[in-house]
């Protein structure tokens, strides 16, 4: 897989790679809705894409849509997602920076927290995510003594 090979080829500062997505499509606009049918399908596509990517840690917010987006991959890998309460991304950025040199993290956030997390990870490219946009997969590859590499894929 190109993504895995690219991440492994770069000298890492801490973790090898961080895969970041916004939660998949939600069923409705209530406070804590489940995923819609399209969202469940998207979460399965993520599982299929990232199953062989070497993910060792999974982080979600405490809302159902992020947990359900991560669940298929977590189940496939036998990992327990680590919930992070609140919209402040600094504690998550610190946890990601503290990961070991062979760790690869998968993070499921929201349209407002994903751009904030990318900034906290020192990504210089300004990122915005439209309200109806659910198909971004951001891959952050830390670089030794340099800004991280950012790949933005659609899935």
**Separation of termini?**
15 Å
Kindly state the number of beta strands. Answer: 6
- Look at the structure and give the CATH class: Alpha Beta
Please state how the strands of the largest beta sheet are arranged side by side: 3-2-4-1-5-6
Percentage of residues assigned to helices = 25-40%
Let me know the CATH homologous superfamily: Phosphoglycerate mutase-like
| Level-2 CATH architecture | 3-Layer(aba) Sandwich
- CATH topology heading: Rossmann fold
SSE run: HEHEHEHEHEE
Strand content: 15-25%
Which blocks of ≥5 consecutive residues have pLDDT under 50? Answer: 1-13
Mean pLDDT: 91
Structure description:
The protein contains 5 helices and 6 strands. With 155 residues, the chain is of the alpha/beta class. The chain has a single domain (14-154), classed as Rossmann fold (3-Layer(aba) Sandwich). Strands 3-2-4-1-5-6 form a 6-stranded mixed beta sheet, sandwiched between helices. The chain starts with a helix and ends with a strand.
């Amino acid at each position: 897989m190109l993504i895995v090979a690219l991440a492994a080829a770069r000298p890492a500062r801490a973790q090898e790679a961080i895969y970041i997505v916004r939660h998949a499509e939600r069923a409705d606009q209530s406070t804590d809705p489940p995923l819609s049918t399209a969202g469940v399908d998207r979460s399965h596509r993520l599982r299929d894409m990232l199953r062989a990517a070497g993910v060792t840690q999974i982080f979600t917010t405490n809302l159902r849509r992020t947990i359900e987006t991560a669940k298929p991959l977590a189940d496939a890998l036998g990992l327990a997602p680590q919930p992070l309460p609140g919209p402040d991304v600094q504690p998550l950025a610190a946890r990601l920076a503290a990961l070991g040199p062979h760790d690869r993290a998968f993070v499921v956030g929201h349209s407002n927290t994903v751009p904030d997390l990318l900034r906290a990870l020192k990504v210089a490219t300004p990122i915005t995510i439209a309200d109806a946009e659910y198909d971004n997969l951001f891959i952050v590859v830390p670089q030794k003594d340099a800004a991280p590499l950012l790949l933005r894929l659609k899935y």
